[in-house]
Structure formats: C-alpha cells, structure tokens
C-alpha cells in the first residue's frame, strides 16, 4: 500500500482553500448528473483528513435528489472543489475534486469509473 499524501487545493479565485490527505494516485470519475456536468475527478477521504483553510463564507451548498451530498461551490468563481457527505458506514466524508489540487496532474491519476447515475 502506498502512503497517503497531503495536498493543498482550492477553487479558482482563491477564496476557498483546503488541505486534504489522500491515498495518492487514485480518483473516480462518476457519471451522475452533477459529476458529468462539473467534470470532477473525485477522491474520497474521511472528514478528519480534510481541513478547510479559508472560504467558509464563500461556499454555497447545492443539494439535489436524495440530498445525501452537499455539493459545495465557490460563489465567486463557481468551482466545485469538494463535496461533503456521509459514507455507507456513517463516517463523515469529503469528496475532493483532484482537478482542484495544487500542482497535481489529474492525468497521472489512475481513474476508476463510478456508476453514480444508477444509485
Ligand atoms: Zn472561488
């Protein structure tokens, strides 16, 4: 198993900044109605491995469907840099859009496909 890595990331305008510890090199492309529009590549991590550094007041919460997830986006630049939700085991999770991580080449990640559309 490869070691976890701590990344810095955020939205486009710089209002939203966060730190997230992720298993490196793995992301998921989800085909649900929002992920396909946003083109997010997601990496999931427990909320305890995520720290919002700035931008709490710039985040807008968007929910739809069963409202399991909070699709947060920056109200200034519109970028969805992460989402909040609860895993099947009740653990509070964060879904990081790896395209929003500093200095990360998303194409270097191994991408698996998640069939969020049928959930
Ligand atoms: Zn922004």
List the helices and strands and how they pair.
Blueprint: E1 5-10, E2 17-22, E3 26-30, H1 33-38, E4 41-46, E5 50-54, E6 59-62, E7 70-74, E8 82-86, E9 92-97, E10 110-114
Parallel strand pairs: 3-10
Antiparallel strand pairs: 1-2, 2-5, 3-4, 4-9, 6-7, 7-8, 8-9
Structure description:
- The strands form two sheets. This protein has a seven-stranded mixed β-sheet, with no helix packed on it. A three-stranded antiparallel β-sheet has the order 1-2-5, with no helix packed on it.
- It has one helix at residues 33-38; strands at residues 5-10, 17-22, 26-30, 41-46, 50-54, 59-62, 70-74, 82-86, 92-97, 110-114.
- By secondary structure, it is mainly beta.
- 29% of the residues are buried.
- A hairpin with a 7-residue loop joins strand 6 and strand 7 (70-74).
- It contains one helix and ten strands; from the N terminus they run βββαβββββββ.
- Helices cover 5% and strands 45% of the residues.
- It has a single domain (5-111), classed as Metal Binding Protein, Guanine Nucleotide Exchange Factor, Chain A.
- The structure holds zinc ion.
How are the strands of the largest sheet arranged? 6-7-8-9-4-3-10
Order of helices and strands: EEEHEEEEEEE
Q: What's the domain count? A: 1
The main pleated sheet reads as: 7 strands, mixed
Number of helices: 1
CATH third-level topology: Metal Binding Protein, Guanine Nucleotide Exchange Factor, Chain A
Question: Beta-strand percentage?
Answer: 35-45%
Helix content, binned percent: under 10%
Gap between N and C termini:
29 Å
Overall, the morphology is: globular
Rg, Å, rounded: 13 Å
Q: What CATH architecture label applies?
A: Beta Complex
Q: Which structural class fits the helix and strand makeup?
A: mainly beta
Q: Report the uncertain regions.
A: none
Please state the average pLDDT score: 93
List the ions, cofactors and other small molecules found in this model.
Answer: zinc ion
Q: Number of DSSP strands?
A: 10
**What is the level 1 CATH name?**
Mainly Beta
Oligomer: single chain
């Amino acid at each position: 198993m490869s070691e976890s890595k701590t990344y810095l990331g955020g939205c486009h305008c710089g209002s939203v900044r966060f730190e997230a510890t992720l298993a490196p090199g793995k992301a998921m492309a989800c085909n649900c109605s929002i992920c396909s529009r946003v083109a997010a590549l997601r990496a999931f991590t427990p909320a305890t491995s995520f720290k919002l550094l700035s931008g709490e007041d710039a985040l807008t919460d968007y929910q739809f469907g069963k409202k399991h997830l909070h699709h947060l986006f920056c109200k200034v630049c519109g970028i969805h840099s992460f989402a909040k939700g609860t895993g099947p085991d009740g653990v509070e999770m964060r879904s990081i859009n790896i395209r929003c991580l500093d200095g990360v080449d998303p194409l270097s990640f191994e991408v698996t496909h998640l069939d969020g559309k049928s959930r």
